[in-house]
Amino acid sequence: MMEYSTFKAVAEKKILDYLPEEFKNAKVEITPVKKVNKTKDAITIREGESSRVSPNFYLDDMYEHYQDCGNLDEVFQSVADAYVANVKNMGNMSIPNVTREFVEENVIMVMINTESNEELLKGVPHREINDCSVIYRVVFGKDDQGIASAIVNDNIAATVDLSEQELFLKATENTKRILPTTIKPMSEVIMEMMIGDGMPKEIAEAMVSDVASQDELMWVISNTSGVNGAVNMLYDENLQKLAEQLQDDLYILPSSIHEVLCVPASKGEPEEFAKMVQEVNMNVVDLEDRLSNQVYHYDKKLRKLTMATDEPNKRIDGIVAEPSLIYDTKEQMR
What we know:
The protein has helices at residues 4-14, 59-69, 72-90, 100-106, 118-121, 154-159, 164-178, 186-196, 201-213, 236-246, 270-283, 329-332, and strands at residues 27-35, 38-46, 56-58, 107-113, 127-129, 132-143, 146-151, 181-185, 219-223, 250-256, 259-264, 296-299, 304-307. It is an alpha+beta fold and 334 residues long.
């Protein structure tokens, strides 16, 4: 089985062989793309000077497929088939002219971990909130298949002459409109997952009825698409509404960049919740979807969101930080 570097070179040279004849004159590009929490090698197939939107395929995903099946033909053919299907679905859709007005109408905000995205944050407008940062994305399209969007980097912001403050104000309005908030009890979310996996609705309802009939202790804040919904914890009205309903302050557990979990503050200790979040992150959540290993506190009376934990050795990439040491000054001088 070939190493990743060899696989990467072979993919760049051979991928066009698996496409229909009409794509034989296309160009293949491999570029590093800064994604949330990581940098990935993207392979892009471009058709001459066409402005048509072209999808990225990520080589680490392709290589993982290759490691699983051991068959290059299967890997490259699956990418080629996906590319052709994408071209047919998108038709001649091209990237719209990104004007100031377009960005103002279509910019949204998402949350990412600050420490794990230091390189990405160097080139994009953002604002830090606790251990996370808000960045901005421009939405180009939204349908049942998903959302087409791109990160607003410094070049785009400068081109359309929008400051970070202006982006933030527009994004706070647009995010609620384009991706409306959802606040659901965990039992309802579990039931929806069961139904989505093919379970009959009546059976799913019966299985969660015992939980639903009791006091709901865990709630999920996200959005209607289920993508990048964790940012909705920044809207005070969302947290205040839930806190008043539960008649308690809230601890907020960042389960991923897509959603956060809320529990009444009287039902546990933040350190225990943080331990649970870390274990789930390290064992279940993909690196690119992790938001934080910390826990936040919402004060119902003060209407204020703060960090409830700030424990060491909590990097979301799993790297253990060096321990903080205290040296006696006299010892240091020897």
